[in-house]
C-alpha cells in the first residue's frame, strides 16, 4: 500500500461521519451540535489515520495481529496526533457549550430550515476536517520506523503550538468573562477592548492560525523523507493556509466586522477601536 493510498481511509472517515450527523440533525433543523461534529470528525479521522493499517490487517485480512500499543508509534506521530486531538476537543467543547447556552447558533439561522443548504454545510465541515487535519493524517500514513528523529524544528513547532493554544484559550476566556460581567450589569461596554482584544480585534483567530502552523511544522520533517514525492510538504501548508483564508476572508473576520459595523458603526469608541487596533495579527494592518 502506497503512502498516499493510506489517506483514502481518512478521506472516507471525514465525509462519512459528517454525512451520518447530517442525516440526524438536518431533518431536525438542529445546529447546536454542528461544532461537536467537527471535533468528533478530527478525533475519529486522526485515529483512523493512525490505526487503519493494523485494523485492516486484523478485521479485513483476518491476520492474527494485535492492535499496536502507543509505544510502537513514532514520537512525532504521537505528538502531532495529541496536538490535533487536544485542540479539536477543546475548541469543539467550547463552541458547543456556547451554542447550548445561547439556545442555538446564529450562523445557521438562514440555512438550517433549508435541508439542501444545511446539508452542504455539513459536507463543507467534512472538507474542513480533511484539509486542516491533513498534515497529521499524512504523517500517520508513514510507517513508524520511517520517521526521522525529533529535532530543533520540531521543538520550535511544539513551542508555537503551545503558545498559540494558550493564546486562543486566553482570548476566549477573556471574552467569556467580559460577557458574564456585562450580563451581570457590572459594566456598560458595548464590545470588548481589553486584554488580548486590545492588540487584535480577533485574537482567538490569531491563536487558531498559530496552532495549525505549529502542527504543520511538526509534520514537515517526515513529509520530506524519501517515502513522499518532492513537494509533499506543501500538504502540510494547506492546513494553516486554509485556516487563515477561512477565518480572515470567509467565515470569521468578515461577518463579525460587518456585524460590528452594523451595531456600532456610528459609535466613536468603535471607530477609534478600528482605527487603533489591528484587525488580525497584532503587527498587521488595521483593515
Automatic annotation (TrEMBL):
PROSITE patterns noted in UniProt: S5A_REDUCTASE
One Pfam family of this chain: DUF1295
Membrane-spanning segments: 6-26, 33-52, 118-138, 150-171
Alphabetical UniProt keywords: Membrane, Transmembrane, Transmembrane helix
Domain of life: Eukaryota
GO CC annotation: membrane
Xref: InterPro entries: UstE-like
Protein name: DUF1295-domain-containing protein
